[in-house]
């Protein structure tokens, strides 16, 4: 699933391509909005809010989209070939005289009045990359349910908006605790570091084409996607298991030597064992 930095990049591409320009083409390939035509309207802005995108048009109209697991917005020049996927995956087209934005595999696409945007994003916690970022409130939200596993609390966009599965695993590694640690057991000094560290990870990567958390050119990430290769710090085999986020299970990575706290039940890790070759280095 795209995370806050990826959505921020998508919003910037859309804003730079469309903002201040009059639409010469619009096409929405979802049944509810198939007859909507915003041709002739000026695009005012595209703003990210957590993992949501809000594209505003003159006349007080907003297009709300969410990329979910596989969605993407691509921007093309007038004569450029579209390369985001087959035509049947296109859900939205917004075109100007010199740019065309194409939305692929958008699982959320809806129109609403601009004054009603809080209806779709008002539930979100402080945005790690937004003007409403409030570290004290974000931390209080995360710690509000002491028994909840830290990984689940970090993925809950009502606590703080922008963290996805990659940053969940990387942030827990940097804090030195497993994603299954109850948030109430998180040491006070590490809890105090959490908001600033989370923000730093997303801010550092919002302008990068390839996400990087290690500071080491040859290795982009500490644990995410590395099972069963050796941990970059201690050489212990990185492990992977499912962890829920309240809606579905997600692969979660951790180092059993560098990170203290509970591990998942044996069955959660067992199902991943045969998906990866044995480590060779």
Automatic annotation (TrEMBL):
InterPro entries: FPG_cat, FPG_N, H2TH_FPG, Nei2_N, Ribosomal_uS13-like_H2TH, Znf_DNA_glyclase/AP_lyase. Keywords: DNA damage, DNA repair, DNA-binding, Glycosidase, Hydrolase, Lyase, Metal-binding, Multifunctional enzyme, Zinc, Zinc-finger. It is an enzyme of class 4 (lyase). One of its GO terms (biological process) is base-excision repair. The keyword Kinase does not apply. SUPFAM superfamilies: Glucocorticoid receptor-like (DNA-binding domain), N-terminal domain of MutM-like DNA repair proteins, S13-like H2TH domain. Residues 222-260 form the FPG-type domain. The keyword Coiled coil does not apply. CDD domains: AcNei2_N (cd08971). GO terms for molecular function: class I DNA-(apurinic or apyrimidinic site) endonuclease activity; damaged DNA binding; oxidized pyrimidine nucleobase lesion DNA N-glycosylase activity; zinc ion binding. Its EC number is 4.2.99.18. It holds the Pfam family Fapy_DNA_glyco. Residues 2-103 form the Formamidopyrimidine-DNA glycosylase catalytic domain. PANTHER family: ENDONUCLEASE 8. Belongs to the FPG family. This is DNA-(apurinic or apyrimidinic site) lyase.
